[in-house]
Amino acid sequence: MDFLIGLGWYxxxxxxxxxxxxxxxxxxxYLVARYNGVGVDVFSIGFGPEVFGWHDKAGTRWKVSxxxxxxxxxxxxxxxxxxxxxxxxxxxxxxxxRSRSLFYKTVWQRIAVSAAGPVANYLFAIVLFAILFATxxxxxxxxxxxxxxxxxxxxxxGFQVGDRIKDINGEQIDRFxxxxxxVQAQAGNTLQVVVDRNxxxxxxxxxxxxxxxxxxxxxxxxxxxxxxxxxxxxxxKRDWWNCWWYATEEAFSLxxxxxxxxxxxxxxxxxxxGLGGPLRIAQMSGEIAxxxxxxxxxxxxxxxxxxxxxxxxxxxxxDGGHLxxxxxxxxxxxxxxxKAQEWGFRLGFGLIIGLMILATWNDIIHxxxx
Length: 370
Hints:
two-stranded antiparallel sheet, elongated, 12 strands, alpha+beta, Pdz3 Domain, about 50% helix
């Protein structure tokens, strides 16, 4: 019984967070589709058999399904939940049904519908960040060195207490929090760091050393460190009129950090061990939920950014794959052949399944064997 109660502390927050983010994502598709006159047959939270649902006045079936690891909007002319075109059904459609099918809309209308889901996730994240920044404040530490850890490579490289770090490898540093975002992925690589020392600009070279660190959840990570200490972090409350700018900046900064990390994994500069899947997200959701609603709101905003970003990847079966096909159609003046699209969806399906297997394997190793 204690095990089931403990498991519930992880699963329930995870399902609540995921369901909210999926609803936001699919609502983006739904609203833009309806705005463009596209008929929507099904709006589902989850996959598989229906638990409960209802029809609205427009004929859309809104439902909750048994497997709550995602969701979908099935539009008129879709063959499945992944919005694969049903070419046979499309050819047999009457005039009225064609007028409500996404596949008979202009290419730019289809682009708008496909992009609406990821955009909705970004907007949702920005709203959450803005609320947090205006009420609780944005985490902020001045990027000034206050001390060094034992054996610090930065101290050996000539850094001094009081140095203000302004730039690392061409990337501007505004907060101390910006430093680990760059340095942790650069173990063994020499960095060029611009510092302000009592009004004098200096350029120092330093190579982060690979170090094992433990986060506040007890998880061990291998990262690059300089061995510098900043002052105690605080929070700056943003005004309601400019919190939106800082929130937008935060969302796109997180996206850029994710893209850089993925790029390093692809070229082999970083291990793929850090890729996590539903099990690790569930674990983190439960742990963060126990830290309070503020931490859970921040985590939800972070996941919403990642969900929006991942769906923009040009992989068939994801929104980005549909966008890729539509942009090719816009350039060529005609869509790709049915066979090319079919092979694209098969490739995308295989890639997604492979990534899910890798992420789940990493989750199992991370959670149960570390």
